Each structure stands twice: as structure tokens, then as C-alpha cells.
Amino acid sequence: MSGSVGKAFGKVIVLGEHAVVYGEPALAGALAAGCAVDVRKSEHGLPHLMLDTRVLEVSDADNGVCKSMKIAQDAAGLGALALDVTIRFDVPVGAGLGSSAAMAVALPRAMFAFAAKTLETARLIELSTQIERVFHGNPSGLDAHLARTGELGLFTKKDGLQAIRAKEPVRLVIADTGVGRSTQTQVSNVAARRERLGRPIERTIEAIGEIARMGADAVTKGDLPRLGELMNANQGLLSALSVSSQEIEHLVHVARKAGAIGSKLTGAGGGGCIIALAPGKEEEVAASLRQHSKTVVITTLGATS
Ligand code: MEV
After folding, report:
1. d(Cα 305, Cα 303) in Å, to the nearest integer?
2. Hey, do 4-161 and 165-301 end up sharing a CATH topology, with the first three levels equal?
3. What is the DSSP letter of 174?
4. Per the CATH hierarchy, to which homologous superfamily does domain 165-301 belong?
5. CA 55 from chain center: how many Å?
6. Residues with Cβ within 8 Å of residue 71, at least 6 apart in sequence
7. Could you give the C-alpha distances from 201 to 157, 189, 192, in angstroms and in order?
8. 20 to 30 Å CA-CA from 8: which of 118, 119, 125, 248?
């Protein structure tokens, strides 16, 4: 029996992570790569869940992926059926490129397609938010929005995404530190620091928001040197929030030394990926980063929009 497939995009935050949780804007775009979920009726009458090449125990109530599958399956009215579910990622998982949000969108899409039911946008947003919360308590909604729409723009919690058109294509080099981290932990650490230190952290968050706004303007005007400078300033402020790490700083400086005009962490930090802007020098920067990172790719921002 053929399966029903649900897909969603990964994402890259260019400017504004963490501050977006507090209502500030973030500049971000979807990646063409993301997550695909295949759902079919189990041939042997037993439920089966594959995560890439790993088999998961479907009834494991502590496993976030199993919990997510159950939310989507129940919502589609398939709770009683034994299903064969395969989840595949073509972005690194847990590395700041929106893999969990992509899964949070792809799972309901696949389940509703299998059930031959229409999935309204509002319901998809509800379900993806519920699933994202399994992995991290207080999502801004940015990752899930981009996973769903594949857009590029300036996102705020209040107004959603304001799409922008880049004057020049923005090519980014992405490199993975290979260090795993939890978005939930990073977001909670920032919240605790804001609670403890108050005003200086609030002002850092506001400054990041201002940088994201300026970055959106630079992308619209095709001013890549300004965008690069803003990325470097944003990295300094993320460091002030203590979400950078030795491994991130190392890759950021390798990229700058090789010719990147802007380089910073992307996503929640603490590990995961860095991005580098190096107009015309992407290959050289990628080659230098490959000496220190197993996963390096060159991508064009908002390639899907
Ligand atoms: C994670 O990709 C981005 C954060 O800003 C969290 C969020 O927006 O939900 C750190």
C-alpha cells in the first residue's frame, strides 16, 4: 500500500534569535531542505516508527518524537490504527536549522493526507505549536511559520511574518559545530539571566531586535556589507546572552579569517550551526570550515520563495 507524505522546510535565522521570543523581530528564511514524513498502514498490524534509520518504541511516552506522532495521529482521527511512520530529515537534527519545527509541520500534514482529511492552516498552526512545545516550552512560532510557508522575511510573535524580497540573492555558508544542544535549555537560560540581571539583558534583547530590523532593510537594498556587519554585531550580543560557546566562536573566527564579512551562530546556540556571509568567497570559506566541521553547506536564503 502506498504511503501519504507530508513535507516541511528547515530554516535559518540570519538575525534576531532569542530576542524574537520576547516580541522583537527576527530576520529569517526557509531552507529548501527540511523534513519528510511518510505514513502508511502497518502491514503486520503493529505500529512502527522510524526516525531516519532508527526504530523507535512507539509507546515510549517519554520520547518527544513518539509524543509528537501521537498528537498528529489522534488529531487526524487515526488513533486506533496501527501505522508505519517514517520520518526523514535532510537538515542536521537539533542543530539550529529548524528540524523539530519541520517535523511538527510535516507530521500533521502526512497524517491528515493519510486520513484524506483537509488540514486547515489554523489547525496546522495549532498542532505544530502543540508539537513544538513537546520539545521547547516557549516557542516564538518563527520556526514553525517558516517550516510551513518556506518564506523569507521579518517575523514578530505579534504580527507573524512580513515577507521581504532580497535585492541580491543572499548566499550563506552553514557549518555545524557537531555539538548537540537543547533549544529549551538555551531559551530557559536566557530567561533566567534576564530575570537575574534585568535591564542590561532587556537592552541587549532590544538591540538585537533593532539589528534584525536594520538587517531586513539591508537585504531589501542588497547592502551585503551592512548585513555582514550586523551579523557580527548580533554575534557579540548573543555572546552577551551566553548562548555562544567555544566551538561556535571557533567556527565563527575560522569563517571570518577565510574572508567572511559576517558570521554568527544561528538558532538557539550552545552548539549547533553557524552561518557565514562571504559574497564571492563562499567556496573558500566553506573549504576552511570543512577542516573543522563535518557538515558544511552553501545555501541561498529564501531559496523557496
Ligand atoms: C530557535 O530556532 C530560535 C529561538 O529564538 C527560539 C524561538 O524562536 O522559539 C532561540
Report:
1. 6
2. no
3. E
4. GHMP kinase, C-terminal domain (3.30.70.890)
5. 24
6. 107, 127, 130, 131, 134
7. 19, 12, 10
8. 248
What's the whole-model pTM score? Answer: 0.90
Element (H, E) at 232: helix 224-240
Residue-range domain boundaries for the chain: 4-161, 165-301
Over the stretch 76-127, which tens digit does the pLDDT of each residue have? 999 989 999 999 998 888 899 999 999 999 999 999 999 999 999 999 999 9
Asked whether 18 lines ligand 1 (CB < 6 A), one says yes
First to last CA, the chain: 34
Q: Which of 24, 124, 121, 43 lies closest to 81 in space, CA to CA?
A: 43
Is 208 touching ligand 1 by the criterion CB < 6 Å?
Answer: no
Q: Which of 9, 11, 14, 21 to mutate to test the pocket of ligand 1 (most atoms within 8 A of CB)?
A: 21
- In this structure, the number of other CB atoms found within 10 A of the CB of residue 51 comes to 18
Residue whose C-alpha is closest to residue 266's, from 140, 95, 142: 95
The active-site residue out of 52, 143, 159, 217 is 143
Burial class (CB in 10 A: 0-12, 13-18, 19+), 57: exposed
Backbone φ and ψ for 35, nearest 5 degrees, come out as -135, 140
User: Which tens digits make up the pLDDT trace of 17-27?
Assistant: 999 999 999 99
Q: Is 84 in the pocket of ligand 1 (CB under 6 A)?
A: no
What letter represents residue 183's amino acid?
A: T
Active site residue 60: no
Residue type, 233: A
> According to CATH, what is the number of the domain 4-161?
3.30.230.10
| CA–CA dist 33, 70 (Å, integer) | 24
What is the C-alpha to C-alpha distance for residues 200 and 237, in angstroms, rounded to an integer? 11
265 has pLDDT over 70: yes
| Paired strand residues for 39 | 4, 85
| Beta-bridge partner residues of 299 | 172
> What pLDDT is stored for residue 283 in this prediction?
97
